[in-house]
Amino acid sequence: MSLKIQLKALKNQVQMKIKNNFKASLLLALFLFTSCDFTPRIHQQILVAQKYITDQEYSRAVKQYHEILEEVPSKDIKIKIYYQLGELYAISLGQYRKGIHYYEKIRELTNNPIWLVKTQERVGEIAFTYIKDYKKSESIYEELISFRPKLNNFDLYEYRYVFSQLSRNKFKEVEKNLIPLQNNVNHKFHTDAFYLYGRLYFHNQEWQKSVSYLREYIKREKRRDKIVKAKFLMGNAYETMEKLKTAYNIYYSIISEYPNTKVIQARLKSVYERRISRRR
Question: Is the pLDDT assigned to residue 78 strictly greater than 50?
């Protein structure tokens, strides 16, 4: 299967996951609201907001929830409305910062661990995946991995915590915090630790170390798109070490799979011209 087909399938899976997550969140919100005790007027307004969501009229649902907040509802209802506004802004309307704003307002109203974990998970997902705010995601995942007993997705949060640090060039911390991932063969991101080490040593200009870890990563990784990404980085390392023939061969091996055709062609052209120049 070509990389393009794999990427398309992966994109469809992600989109379906987002839709399913939103549907699950909506069902949760409906359950939470129906379990609340509120006045007939607020009850009617919430039903209207829920109808807007069902009809995918998300902007009208947002407006309705804001009108409910103006009624000064109880703290419990406020928490649930803030969560729903976070979902609507972030997931349905793509206004990620606004979504984060409402998730975080929940923390001002409660110290209930269930709500704290739930909102932190959502903020972490948005910061890490959608807006690439690695300062925010590092802070969020540091908090999530500190919860005891450990959360079900502890391995994911630990990996994203280290990834966020690497993306912020906090190399000393990364080198230390990667150790548990690499040493624990049962860690869900044990394999990914090799790639992060490869990236770490690449940034530190320790090219041979970078190549060694990337090779180990490629041996273990199953997903072809990830392998292609690692090979491109390895090609960069060999190119920097002036091992141009090796770099050229690696680039050429992924020419039909690398997502950005122009980039890979530019690297091949550059390496080829440098090799020709050497012979003169």
Answer: yes
